[in-house]
Amino acid sequence: MPFHSVFDIIGPVMIGPSSSHTAGANRIGRVARKLFGRLPESVTVTLYGSFAKTYRGHGTDVAIVSGILDFDTADERIPDALHIAAEQGLDVKFVLSDDAVEHPNTARLTLRDKRGGLEVVGISIGGGSMEIREVIQLDDNPTHRSHPTMLVLHEDKHGAVAHVTSLLAEHHINIGYMEVSRSGKGQSALMAIELDESVDDAVIHHMHTLPHIKEIWQVKTYQRTSSEGGRPCSIA
Question: ACT domain spans which residues (predicted)?
């Protein structure tokens, strides 16, 4: 992922100790929470590579759970995330895997509750940035249909949301559901937009040029029942 500003190189305002193992991990957990749409009842976090070897010392465990709790990278509650998760009824399990992976900072999050499940694979690529590689919808109801989802990281500035929704409207792309959350007034914010159809690359490129937009992820989920195998789609 190319750096767009000096702040991408320095990294985010964060609770340490590591931008890769803490801030990036937090963002993986937070995106998984946004995709799931609610606080799950349980989450199994499978860690690979460097994550598996150093997750306690570098705070990867509390960082991922803090993201699932929807805490920002600078939230002072991050060190207490495991305790807070238990208080909120979230059952957390960590699994360490020695399976070979393409990137050393890889985590697989399986979120579940009575309404269904979601599996998200993310990697922390440095400087607090991350990429989502796989999203799998886990559902015992084969008639359920998932929809393309777009995640837009932006500055909490006047007009940022309106510019994105207006662009989608110009291209006749309907929004089925939308949620916006922010770390604080005037700080980082995240739009989670459920769409009726995927957005093509030309629209994504145009969206990158809009004011206050930082990063964009378009998520195409692969759906399977709990007993079904299959290969998940990647994230654009």
Answer: 149-227
Give pTM, 2 decimals: 0.67
Instruction: Provide DSSP, 14-42.
Output: --SS-IIIIIHHHHHHHHHHHHHTS--SE
How far apart CA 56 and CA 36 sit, in angstroms, is: 25
How far apart CA 174 and CA 132 sit, in angstroms, is: 24
Strand partners, 138: 117, 224
The residue count of the chain comes to 236
Nearest to 203 by CA among 162, 172, 161: 172
Convert the pLDDT of each residue in 1-23 to its tens digit. Answer: 333 333 333 344 444 445 455 78
- According to DSSP, residue 173 is labeled P
In the Cβ-directed half-sphere of 15, how many Cα atoms lie within 13 Å? Answer: 21
User: Around Cβ 48, how many Cβ atoms within 10 Å?
Assistant: 23
The two most distant CA atoms of the chain are separated, in Å, by 48
